[in-house]
Design a protein that fits this description.
Elements (H helix, E strand, L loop, with lengths): L13 H29 L4 E7 L5 E6 L2 E6 L8 E3 L8 E5 L2 E5 L13 E7 L1 E2 L2 E2 L1
Parallel strand pairs: 1-7
Antiparallel strand pairs: 1-4, 2-3, 2-5, 5-6, 8-9
């Protein structure tokens, strides 16, 4: 009985070099695709927000979307603070004349973030409600 023996030969020479180059090209192309896709999604659109007090009362312990702004005198405007999520309106709490005032939006459904830039929230009181 005679048979043949199929020996496996290790890859070497030009075959291994071509495979390595092909693999490297695929990995680099994949990395470029992932970076290009993630870049707009990974960069947060930071808004800079300041607060102007047009309530006619000094405000104490002002907090906007969880960010403390401290005390704001009548007609005063705070410095800018960076917020990752800012919309046309915000959750605000403050104390005036020993009374706590709150504005709590139901949600931000359908609202787009303000995005990159500088914005001012103006606080006013009409009929004891924030505007």
């Amino acid at each position: 009985m005679t048979g043949t023996c199929n020996e496996e030969k290790p890859l070497s020479g030009p075959h291994i070099g071509a495979m390595a180059v092909s693999l490297l090209v695929l990995v680099l192309a994949g990395a470029v695709f992932v970076v290009a896709w993630l870049t707009p999604h990974a960069v947060p659109q930071i808004s800079e927000i300041r607060i102007r007090n047009d309530t006619g009362f000094p405000l104490h312990h002002v907090v906007v979307n969880g960010q403390p702004y401290g005390d704001i005198g009548v007609g005063d405007t705070t410095g800018y603070q960076r917020l990752r999520k800012a919309y046309r309106y915000a959750r605000v709490s403050a104390i005036t004349d020993m009374r706590e005032m709150r504005l709590e939006p139901d949600d931000y459904v359908g609202e787009a973030r303000l995005g990159r830039g500088r914005f001012t929230y103006v606080l006013r009181i009409i009929d004891t409600e924030w505007l």
